[in-house]
Amino acid sequence: EPEVTQTPSHQVTQMGQEVILRCVPISNHLYFYWYRQILGQKVEFLVSFYNNEISEKSEIFDDQFSVERPDGSNFTLKIRSTKLEDSAMYFCASRDTNQETQYFGPGTRLLVL
Amino acid sequence: AQSVSQHNHHVILSEAASLELGCNYSYGGTVNLFWYVQYPGQHLQLLLKYFSGDPLVKGIKGFEAEFIKSKFSFNLRKPSVQWSDTAEYFCAVNEDYGQNFVFGPGTRLSVLP
Predict the structure, then answer these.
(1) Out of B32, B43, B103, closest to residue A100 by CB
(2) Which is nearest to B90 in space by CA: B2, B32, B6, B25?
(3) How would residue B74 be classed by pLDDT, with cut points 50, 70 and 90?
């Protein structure tokens, strides 16, 4: 069964550094999402992406964040200058055109020191 | 803004006990409803979903959920839990086709052998 994959599984970075989180959505899916889950809190929506542009973004998704689909398979989330409060689990999800269900990747645990 | 609440933060049951996890949402219009499960160290997996039709939906692993529109609820049930059901359970809602999910805070289920 096809799955969403994410790399790396864990990343530790210094405050102020840039990080890029990578996701490979399910191959025939065209809608992509990023969510995050701060430890002990609920899963929060960050951004959705379709047709090479952002469809919707939350208040969390400020100028420090950007998303990109650099090639036909990867979908990346970049945090330009990380802050301590960016420490969280980041989940990528993708969806088929004719389905409502979003399929989630295993997450990347980001720790900002 | 739409919100999702889950009644219990942590539920502890013995094997073979019956389970009901509460979920309520705030939006008054048409919604799509989901339950996701996150086993320890794994990614979010879809348990079941409701879009329309029969308000009692059956999912994987013996889980079912009932949509009660008048109560804005979508409670998850399982008649007899197993130790392997130990996980975190998230209720999620989206308002329109393709919109991002709003997640509840999650309920941690611990099943004692």
Answers:
(1) B32
(2) B6
(3) very high
